[in-house]
Write the structure tokens for this entry.
Amino acid sequence: MFKISEFSKLGQVSVKTLRYYDKLELLKPAYIDSDTGYRYYTADQLFLLNRILAFKELGFTLNQIRLLLEEEIPVEQIRGMFRLKQAEIHTLLENELGRLKRIEERLYQIEKEGSIEAEHEVVIKKLEAQHFASLRKPAAIQEIPQLFAQLDRDLGKNFSSSYPQTVLWHCCEECEGEVDLEVCYPLQQISMKSEVQVQQLPEAPMAATLLHRCHPASPCTASAELGIWIEQNGYQIKENEPRREVFLHPEHDFYIAEVQIPIEKVPSNVR
């Protein structure tokens, strides 16, 4: 048997913790010397200590742990509880990492307020009409990758789609905390057998465009830079036309993308 100080080293907990577990009748010493009051533990009690610590990691209170120990839960059930906790933590980490990226991008936007980056050149061009398959729904911008994944599943083998991926940002006055998004693929061949929405995106005779590097599910400065350029050069955004963003090709965790905003000259009588 081991003295409490020795057992604490083996179990990697403090002596104070072991005394507290004794008081709560979670883990009582195997033997207490009646003359000295010294507590002694056996090696197999380390397994019980490990189970207590495992339940603590899962977020149970000590009172709840005492009840769980009385039920003698099988090891496989404990493994299942840990797998659920593991999945929960992975999801939390992914959400927080995404949030961190958005915070970094917002900070970058604040630092670049009022300026257009030198390497970003606004180009005016005509956007040709094109057929595309799409999926449209109100969603947060973080959900763009999931929307494309859903569109991929819906398309199946009925379509021959060509990259790049395109996102249309529609106006939605009723949306709260979401955006009216439409994810789509330009089509080389059209099959009317599929239930996926196939339509024609009309041409835009004049659009202000800007190439930039971004993450598809994060906000970026390109739209703000385009807005500044449009305002400073005597243009206005054409009504009832969605903002377009074309993801051209991947670059590690980012994409080279082109923002396209249909525009028209501001009438001379309103300048």
About this structure: Residues 75-111 form the longest helix (37 residues). The chain has a mean pLDDT of 81. The chain has two domains: 2-73, 123-270.
